[in-house]
């Protein structure tokens, strides 16, 4: 092969096929030698060729080999000091995954050979293993990046008209009888017409996929018959996970993923990826050596003063060092790749506060955010932060930079507290449903708030109203894992019940929570299956349950709740008053002397400051002026809408609400009442008439008689 070997180039990083051969590169500052290993199949026990990489430019090792084509399997062996006490863990006996691999074939086969030290040795990671890990580790794959996108463009949804649907590739499709069995659990299953029609009918504008970067299932889980189902354990930041491919694993997974994105875009649905750049699957000092550890441990991870150990802000054993230029480059290259080559529309960053840590403190102007803000590609897509990590000072809700939206954990907690009957919740409830100005108004808009009641982590909506306690026994950790303070309420019985009154109350509570979510200012996020009463049997930490606990059971779908949710989303998508781009001002609109928003008591008078301080208060009416939206549409005209009167009642008893004076509205029609599953109540009221609002319910009334003909909704 020597006649086919050329020096190659240091850029672009990763393998690049040009039609004649492949350029390979690898960044390692402290390595003394690098070997490229080629394999004929996933099952090869040893490489068929081992080639020394001798060229190095600015710590980037590079080589070009003629005659190599897409589908070629490869890995690296990297030489250097094995000095864990100094942060170095080089061991050429370990085959390593290329950090820039665009595809990875196969899954890990757990074996002691995957560790750089002798497992069981008294010296632990200070010992040295000479076992070859090649038979047990997935292989990197050279791909052909060509794909016919057919002129694909991203659907043009801004945050204010976005409805996010958080879904798991496998969980959403695995049990869907309308999808061919061979496509269930795959990217192709998401792209199937049955999946797309369901999302369109529901009114979804963006699907947020739980991690699809190639990830590892932890050894202890596999040995206990479980797996890392959620996927927050990345090892390949450029590679779509091969387990979700129905077409093959030697690059076919890349084509299948691209096809999925193209089909979703054709249907008007954006694709957001949940990404995990805060840590890798290699764990702490006792974890395996799969890639970064063996390539250059000290150049990728945050190490403590004693460099044998890792700073762990993620609870997973390690933290990638976003303070280092080569790590930042890896992250930015990965993000750009998924935008430019895979056409995704945005990212949700897991434990994003970790990425803001310069040394130990969280700094919202950290290098990671500076670079993204300046990047002409990354800065233009949706950027959503999970604004916390497990380190000190890691809860950073409301503190991310302009251009970022955030999972609003305070919204989740407050809305749960309000509907479970907690006291002293009304003032914060008002903040949350109007966009959380207390968190975001300084330099962002209401759309900075990603509102959610539930997420993949925690109870499903059905379980939130059915369980007071978590039931995670199936996870094998003695029910000690998962959140213990869930702000849930079982409505009178723990788990499934035949009591018709409890069942009725639970259904009402689900409607209340969904109604609050979709009629709040901000960006709503719905978890896949909540709209059909999906249950995890009380498991609030189903990260390791790749089975019926986590998969959506379409056969038992709650069609009544589904229809209610469709109406809710349609209502939101049809009315700009529920999806404002600008903050409420609380002042009179034009010459009307009517505010853009007003708050009312049951007797029809406006609330005063003292009313907010009554700790027993659990009900409120909100007047939303359709002529006070304070924004213009794409046509440059003022956005106007119908005017609504929204009554929330979290008391267990019903209340009579007197409608306000006719200056606020001359005829009110009930368009939604959560006390019933009837999605078209169709009741008419005059000004100052009394509307009875049942206990624990929401009533929404509309008056379109005072709408000014100044323009159309956006």
Automatic annotation (TrEMBL):
One MF term in the entry's GO annotations: amylo-alpha-1,6-glucosidase activity
The Glycosyl hydrolase family 13 catalytic domain, residue ranges: 166-572
Transmembrane segments: none
Keywords per UniProt: Glycosidase, Hydrolase
Record-level GO BP terms: glycogen catabolic process
Extent of Basic and acidic residues compositional bias: 472-486
Source organism, top-level taxon: Bacteria
Tagged with keyword Ligase: no
Region (Disordered): 472-495
UniProt xrefs under CDD domains: AmyAc_Glg_debranch, E_set_GDE_Isoamylase_N
Name of one Pfam family that matches: Isoamylase_C
InterPro entries assigned to the protein according to its UniProt record, in alphabetical order: GH (IPR017853), GH13_cat_dom (IPR006047), GlgX_Isoamylase_N_E_set (IPR044505), Glyco_hydro_13_N (IPR004193), Glyco_hydro_b (IPR013780), Glycogen_debranch_GlgX (IPR011837), Ig-like_fold (IPR013783), Ig_E-set (IPR014756)
Family, as annotated: Belongs to the glycosyl hydrolase 13 family.
Classification via PANTHER family: GLYCOGEN DEBRANCHING ENZYME
Name assigned to this protein: Glycogen operon protein
Organism listed in the record: Mucilaginibacter gossypiicola
Lineage: Bacteria, Pseudomonadati, Bacteroidota, Sphingobacteriia, Sphingobacteriales
């Amino acid at each position: 092969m020597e006649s086919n070997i050329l020096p190659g180039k240091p850029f672009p990083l990763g393998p690049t096929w040009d039609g004649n051969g492949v350029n390979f590169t690898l960044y390692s500052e402290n390595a003394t030698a690098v070997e490229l290993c080629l394999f004929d199949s996933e099952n090869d026990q040893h490489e068929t060729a081992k080639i020394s990489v001798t060229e190095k430019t600015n710590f980037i090792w590079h080589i070009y080999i003629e005659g190599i084509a897409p589908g070629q399997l490869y890995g690296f062996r990297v030489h250097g000091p094995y000095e864990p006490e100094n942060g170095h863990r080089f061991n050429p006996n370990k085959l390593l995954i290329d950090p820039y691999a665009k595809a990875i074939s196969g899954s890990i086969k757990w074996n002691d050979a995957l560790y750089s030290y002798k497992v069981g040795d008294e010296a632990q990671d200070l010992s040295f293993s000479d076992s070859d890990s090649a038979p047990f580790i997935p292989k990197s794959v050279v791909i052909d990046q060509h794909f016919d996108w057919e002129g694909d463009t991203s659907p043009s949804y801004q945050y204010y008209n976005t409805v996010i649907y958080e879904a798991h590739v496998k969980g959403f499709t695995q049990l869907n009888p309308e999808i061919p069995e061979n496509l269930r659990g795959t990217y192709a299953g998401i792209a199937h017409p049955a999946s797309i029609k369901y999302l369109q009918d529901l009114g979804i504008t963006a699907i947020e996929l739980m991690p699809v970067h190639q990830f590892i299932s932890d050894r202890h889980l596999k040995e206990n018959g479980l797996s890392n189902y959620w996927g927050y354990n990345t090892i390949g930041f450029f590679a779509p996970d091969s387990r979700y491919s129905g077409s093959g694993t030697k690059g076919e997974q890349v084509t299948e993923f691209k096809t999925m994105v193209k089909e979703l875009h054709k249907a008007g649905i954006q694709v957001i990826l949940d990404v995990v750049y805060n840590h890798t699957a290699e764990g702490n000092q006792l974890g395996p050596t799969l890639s970064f550890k063996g390539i250059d441990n000290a150049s990728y991870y945050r190490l403590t003063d004693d460099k044998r150990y890792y700073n762990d802000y993620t609870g997973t054993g390690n933290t990638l060092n976003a303070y280092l230029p080569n790590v930042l480059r890896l992250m930015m290259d990965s993000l750009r790749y998924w935008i430019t080559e895979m056409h995704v529309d945005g990212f949700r960053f897991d434990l994003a506060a970790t990425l803001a840590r310069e040394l130990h403190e969280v700094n919202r102007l950290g290098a990671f955010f500076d670079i993204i803000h300046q990047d002409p590609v990354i800065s233009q897509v949706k950027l959503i932060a999970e604004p916390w990590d497990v380190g000190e000072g890691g809860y950073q809700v409301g503190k991310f930079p302009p251009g970022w939206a955030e999972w609003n954990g305070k919204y989740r907690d407050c809305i749960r507290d309000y509907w479970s009957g907690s006291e002293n919740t009304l003032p914060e409830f008002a903040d949350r449903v109007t966009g959380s100005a207390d968190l975001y108004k300084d330099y962002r808009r209401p759309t900075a708030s990603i509102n959610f009641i539930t997420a993949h982590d925690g109870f499903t909506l059905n379980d939130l109203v059915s369980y007071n306690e978590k039931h995670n026994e199936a996870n094998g950790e003695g029910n000690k894992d998962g959140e213990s303070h869930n702000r849930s309420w079982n409505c009178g019985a723990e788990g499934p019940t035949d009591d018709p009154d409890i069942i009725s109350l639970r259904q009402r509570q689900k409607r209340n929570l969904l109604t609050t979510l979709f009629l709040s200012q901000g960006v709503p996020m719905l978890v896949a299956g909540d709209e059909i009463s999906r249950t995890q049997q009380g498991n609030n930490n189903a990260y390791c349950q790749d089975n019926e606990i986590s998969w959506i059971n379409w056969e038992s779908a709650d069609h009544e709740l589904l229809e209610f949710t469709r109406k809710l989303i349609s209502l939101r998508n049809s009315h700009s008053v529920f999806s404002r781009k600008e903050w409420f001002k609380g002042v009179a609109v034009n010459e009307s002397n009517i505010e853009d928003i007003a708050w009312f008591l049951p007797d029809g008078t406006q609330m005063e400051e003292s009313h907010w301080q009554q700790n027993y208060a659990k009900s409120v009416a909100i007047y939303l002026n359709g002529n006070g939206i304070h924004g213009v549409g794409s046509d440059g005209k003022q956005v106007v809408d119908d005017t609504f009167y929204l009554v929330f009642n979290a008391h267990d008893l019903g209340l009579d609400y007197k409608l306000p004076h006719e200056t606020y509205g001359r005829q009110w029609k009930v368009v939604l009442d959560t006390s019933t599953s009837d999605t078209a109540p169709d009741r008419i009221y005059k000004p100052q008439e009394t509307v009875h609002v049942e206990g624990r319910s929401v009533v929404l009334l509309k008056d379109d008689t005072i709408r000014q003909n100044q323009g159309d909704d956006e």
